């Protein structure tokens, strides 16, 4: 695992869906025309912390820091106090550890490999470049339409 940045905040779809349910049952005046950061303060993660979660989840996984990587001076810490006050019933039940375990189990179950994740199967630009090389797409990214080949001995009337 190559680390090139040291900060990130992790929030997942399960957390958002629980927030939507909480908002649907909340008094209108507590949520109307208000924006909310969805999550919990303790779920603010740095890239390094996420990498450590992965190494604790995936047997044999190690962390390698890019030689030119340095600390990111930007702050990604998100304040979740507004949602905690407005939607006291909202309690995310998902975190990065649970997400890492779920992904690891799914990758094992489906047979996804490192080569898959680093190649055209899951990388959009690589996939598009492969389609161009295979002449499925033209350079303007339009799908090439192949003309049906005539059947031998058949002539349209």
What can you tell me about this protein's structure?
- The protein contains 7 helices and 2 strands; from the N terminus they run E-H-H-H-E-H-H-H-H.
- It starts with a strand and ends in a 24-residue tail after the last helix.
- The chain has a two-stranded parallel sheet with strand order 1-2.
- It has 2 domains: 2-111, no CATH class; 113-145, no CATH class.
- Helix 3 (47-57) crosses helix 5.
- Helix content is 40%, strand content 3%.
- Residues 1-11 have low confidence and may be disordered.
- The protein has helices spanning 13-24, 28-31, 47-57, 81-86, 96-110, 114-118, 124-133; strands at 2-3, 64-65.
- It has 157 residues and is mainly α.
Structural class: mainly alpha
**Biggest sheet, spatial arrangement of strands:** 1-2
- The residue fraction in helices comes out at 40-55%
- SS elements, strand count: 2
Poorly predicted runs of 5 or more residues: 1-11
């Amino acid at each position: 695992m190559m680390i090139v940045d040291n900060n990130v905040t992790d929030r997942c779809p399960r957390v958002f869906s629980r927030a939507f349910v909480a908002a649907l049952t909340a008094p209108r005046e507590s949520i109307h025309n208000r924006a909310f950061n969805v999550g919990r303060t303790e779920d603010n993660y740095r890239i390094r912390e996420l990498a450590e979660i992965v190494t604790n989840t995936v047997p044999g996984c190690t962390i390698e820091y890019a030689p030119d990587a340095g600390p990111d001076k930007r702050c990604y810490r998100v304040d979740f106090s507004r949602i905690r006050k407005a939607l006291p019933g909202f309690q995310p039940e998902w975190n990065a550890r649970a997400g890492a375990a779920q992904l690891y189990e799914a990758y094992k179950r489906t047979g996804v490999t490192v080569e898959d994740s680093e190649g055209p199967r899951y990388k959009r630009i690589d996939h598009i470049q492969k389609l161009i090389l295979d002449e499925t797409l033209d350079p303007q990214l339009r799908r090439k339409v192949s003309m049906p080949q005539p059947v031998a001995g058949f002539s349209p009337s």
